[in-house]
Write a structure and sequence with these properties.
This protein has 87 residues and is mainly α. Helices cover 56% and strands 0% of the residues. The chain has one domain.
């Protein structure tokens, strides 16, 4: 994706805190991460709002219940596998 150089005004302390929290190597990287997360959060909010306007039908609910949730159980220790991943 093409990137453009821009000038912005920001709170340097916030930018430094954010860089530290996400391990970004530059202010540009932390801004890119922040924008990605904002876009994802807003799209999710729009999806939730759309779902609330039009909830699933009885047929869709019944279809979701056909699966065997117990089949998802296994011996994988997911917590230790992803211990170093932040959510």
């Amino acid at each position: 994706m093409a990137k453009d150089k821009v000038t912005i005004t920001l709170d340097r302390n916030k930018a430094n805190d954010a860089r530290s929290l996400v391990g970004a190597s530059s202010t540009s990287e932390v801004i890119d991460i922040a924008l990605e997360r904002l876009i994802r959060a807003e799209r999710k909010s729009l999806d939730v709002a759309a779902y609330r306007r039009l909830p699933p039908t009885k047929q869709e609910d019944d279809l979701a219940l056909l699966g065997d949730a117990q089949a998802l159980a296994d011996e994988t220790d997911w917590e230790s596998l992803y211990a170093d991943v932040e959510g």
